[in-house]
Write a structure and sequence with these properties.
With about 280 residues, the chain is α/β, with parallel strands linked by helices. The chain has nine helices and nine strands. β6 and β7 form a beta hairpin.
């Protein structure tokens, strides 16, 4: 039996990744659909220490981890394997093209201010609930939040001596992740294997989902397109963007290192309804 075709997500957190996994599970056959496979025996997570390895440039450890993941994926025995974890661009991207030569991708893009506010809300909830395993110790002995970048990445360099708000921190993370997405596709010539979804509009568009299934050669379950019943909302914390969130964004964008906003002036971001409003917050 040939190995499953692996499909991973290029995305930040709070960008519809869980919804996508549920949607694909409802509408495909012969595809192992996973979001964050914490409880799948032998299928390693890409969160936590691998994010620190990526920040430290320890590609060898990530390559070894992905080699184990490739073996785990083969054991599902399906034609395709989908993993929508937002960890891919936090860790796996450093060795994924090498370990998975038949790699395919889904790029989910959501309004960066909504992503940043929603991620800040989710982290606050996790800390308030004292969720076990929310922290890990990096190779430098420091403690890091399991599902986020470390803060050692280059984009944070200009803000080392500044107390960032949670929204500002996650806004910088969004920009880092999206720049990684474009660089990864260009470096490995994978744009032709990547399907882009604007969130929520494309994710809620039945025709776009049908195109996604056909693009990746996924076998469609008979019948009308099925929708997940549940949404992955932050309880009691709706994502609201107002004058205060825009003020915080202006403050951090004013000190952003050169080049990080250039990608927003080209496809696929040029098709996003939020782009002009977001760029208006940046100086110049």
């Amino acid at each position: 039996m040939s190995e499953p075709i692996p499909i991973f997500a290029l995305a930040s957190g709070r960008s519809g990744t869980l919804h996508l996994a549920r949607l694909m599970a409802l509408n495909t056959v012969d595809c192992a659909c996973r979001h964050e496979p914490y409880f799948d025996r032998g299928n390693p997570t890409l969160f936590g220490p691998p994010i620190d390895w990526a920040a430290a440039g320890d590609v060898a450890r990530i390559r070894a981890l992905l080699t184990d993941k490739r073996a785990a994926i083969a054991r599902y025995g399906t034609g395709h394997y989908l993993e929508t974890s937002h960890a891919f661009l936090k860790s796996a991207y450093t060795a994924a093209a090498e370990v998975f030569p038949n790699l395919r991708l889904i790029h989910l893009i959501r309004d960066p201010l909504k992503v940043a506010q929603s991620e800040a809300n989710r982290e606050a909830l996790v800390r308030r609930l004292r969720l076990p395993g929310r922290h890990y110790r990096g190779g430098d002995g420091q403690t890091y939040f399991r599902w986020a970048l470390t803060g050692k990445e280059a984009i944070f360099g200009a803000f080392r001596d500044e107390a960032l708000t949670p929204l500002q921190w996650y806004l910088l993370q969004w920009l880092e992740i999206e720049n990684r997405a474009m660089a990864f596709l260009a470096e490995h010539g994978l744009a032709s294997r990547c399907f882009t979804l604007r969130v929520p509009e494309d994710l809620n568009d039945a025709e776009q989902i049908e195109r996604l299934l056909a693009f990746h050669g996924l076998t469609r379950r008979p019948g009308p397109l099925r929708r997940p019943r549940r949404r992955n909302l932050n309880p009691f914390q709706p994502t609201r963007i107002g004058a205060e969130q825009e003020r915080q964004a202006r403050a951090v964008l004013a000190r952003l290192p050169d080049g990080y906003l250039a990608l927003l002036r080209q496809a696929p971001y040029s098709r996003c309804a939020w782009r002009e409003r977001f760029l208006s917050l940046a100086p110049g």
